[in-house]
Design a protein that fits this description.
single chain, alpha/beta, two-stranded antiparallel sheet, 5-stranded mixed beta sheet
């Protein structure tokens, strides 16, 4: 079986499983993308999605063109959150990974392609990115497609996909990922061809995106330029927290593990292969060129004060191609070194199997930890809340306190329910419901007053707990005075699912699910759902 065929057979079911099990790891995914999809796909006077300040016409930082294809598919699949996630997010991601394996096979041979497939299957980073409806995950898939075409020698296809990745999701900063590709095109095709290809691809993508964004915002504006101005020039991202450079080192170690080690030792493995097992088909310069986007992107991220796990997603294809090539190079070098004692092929296979085995164990332990500790509790609680809301009447208010940021999206709620917020320890800016209009474009273009660009919280977005029909929150401490449902005479608990209390759990236990250790040392709280006592009597 060819590596590409094996990749399709293995990666598609794995990514669909990742999508089925995954929670929503970042509030930006919900409020900046799933809610926008809901507005375009399913406008409703009761079930109103929530708008962030980034979508306010005053600021216009997000591109409506990015969510349009997902909204179109959402209508086809009856606006099912899970169906959209499976067929529009996870499946294309898996196809992009399989394409990357095929490209590596064409350029570097079957050994590297098989190593790449093994690393992708074991990747906790890709397991997190595959189900995520965020620009960084979309760019990861498009970057994989682009790099696949580049590996095959199709520079025109690679450039078009690179331009699409840079302009369509609304993250123009990722253009730095494709600098090595641009240099390659420039050197091999000349300045004129490179410019024509870049400009033609850019116009093909920009014109329809700009037209749709202008219609959605009710005026001519450029979310691409607006986001550059806000994040890069103004340094606005610092408002959302800062972290040291070690944040990315730890994150890459958790989510890439063995692949990260292989990339770090790549200069050594390539040099050893050059000295011990010369292979003109796979020159070191080619490997380094295809690994360069990872180095460039991570270098840029390290300089930014605000850091998030999802920001790493675009660099993953380059990381894994480089890691696979490094593994193949190191195995070939060691095979040549021990040729007097064992056949080189046997040594290469042994080294590859050991490395991939270690990667699989680490990746599986990491993915299992996230699923058991966080995703299960989060998603089962919100699904229980949605199922309960469907039984309660024509207009139901589902409330969240401190757990507002883990809400999976309005598409998960029944048509008779909407999300509201009760006051919690969070004091930043919260989203607020879109004004309803049967025409979602009219709603999107409406200038909602009260938003600000400095993450300043406002009291008028909260509702009183008495207005809530269903309450969802996280209980980590039985005596927590901030939980709004503490009054058991008023509220009745109908659901509880375990959720890790990371502050009381040792680092190793929360990072990986290690049999015989992690669960024994993990401390759990409860993701809970409450309803007013009178509702409980009525429906139960």
């Amino acid at each position: 079986m060819q590596p590409a065929a094996a990749a399709l057979l293995a990666l598609i079911p794995l990514r669909l499983l990742n999508a089925y099990l995954a929670g929503v790891a970042d509030c930006d995914e919900t409020y900046n993308y799933w809610e926008a999809v809901c507005l375009l796909a399913a406008p409703h006077p009761v079930r109103r999605p929530l708008q962030t300040w980034e979508y306010a016409p005053e600021f216009a930082l997000r591109s409506w063109a990015y969510v349009l294809p997902y909204a179109a598919i959402s209508r086809i699949v009856d606006n099912s959150f899970l169906a959209v996630r499976l067929c529009c997010v996870a499946l294309p991601f898996a196809l992009a990974e399989a394409s990357l394996v095929s490209g590596a096979h064409a350029r570097f041979g079957s050994d590297t392609a098989w190593a790449l497939l093994g690393l992708l299957l074991s990747s906790a980073g890709h397991a997190a990115a595959a189900p995520a409806l965020v620009p960084s995950a979309t760019i990861c898939a498009l970057a994989a497609w682009s790099q696949s075409r580049w590996l095959r020698g199709d520079r025109r296809g690679a450039v078009f996909l690179a331009v699409l990745a840079t302009l369509w999701p609304g993250w123009p900063f990722v253009g730095v990922l494709f600098v090595p590709l641009a240099v390659d095109v420039l050197l091999k095709d000349g300045l004129r061809e490179a410019l024509l290809l870049g400009v033609a691809s850019g116009l093909f993508v920009l014109i329809p995106c700009a037209a749709f964004d202008a219609k959605a915002y009710g005026r001519a504006t450029s979310p691409l330029w607006n986001v550059i101005t806000y994040n890069a020039v103004g340094g606005g991202d610092e408002l959302y927290g800062v972290a040291p450079w070690t944040y990315y080192a730890k994150n890459l170690g958790l989510n890439a593990g063995i692949a990260l080690v292989l990339v770090l030792v790549m200069p050594v493995t390539l040099l050893l292969r050059h000295l011990l097992a010369r292979d003109p088909r796979r020159p070191a310069s080619t490997v380094l060129t295809h690994a360069a986007p990872f180095v460039l992107w991570v270098g840029i991220l390290l300089l930014r004060p605000h850091k998030e796990e999802r920001f790493l997603f675009p660099a993953f294809p380059s990381l894994y191609v480089g890691a696979a090539a490094s593994l193949d190079a190191g195995a070939s070098a060691l095979g040549a070194l021990g040729a007097k004692f064992v056949t080189p092929r046997t040594t290469r296979r042994f080294i590859t199997y050991v490395a991939l085995g270690a990667a699989t164990l680490l990746g599986a332990a990491r993915v299992a930890a996230l699923a058991v500790y966080y995703d299960h509790g989060q998603m089962t609680a919100w699904r229980a809340a949605a199922a309960t809301a469907a039984k309660l009447g024509p207009e139901v208010t589902v409330c969240a306190g401190s757990e507002w940021h883990r809400f999976p999206g309005t598409l998960l709620l029944p048509s008779n329910a909407r999300l509201s917020f009760v006051r919690s320890a969070f004091d930043g800016q919260l989203p607020r419901p879109y004004a309803y209009d049967a025409d979602p474009m009219e709603t999107a273009a409406r200038d909602v007053k009260g938003f600000n660009g400095h993450n300043g919280g406002e009291a008028n977005v909260y509702v009183d707990a008495a207005a809530c029909d269903v309450a969802v929150d996280l209980r980590l401490d039985e005596g927590d005075p901030l939980l709004f449902f503490n009054d058991t005479r008023t509220w009745t608990q109908i659901h509880a699912s375990p959720f890790l209390d990371s502050s009381r759990t040792p680092a190793l236990a929360r990072a990986f699910l290690v049999p015989g250790y992690s669960l024994q040392n993990a401390k759990f709280g409860e993701y809970v759902v409450h309803i007013p006592a009178e509702h409980f009597v009525r429906i139960y």
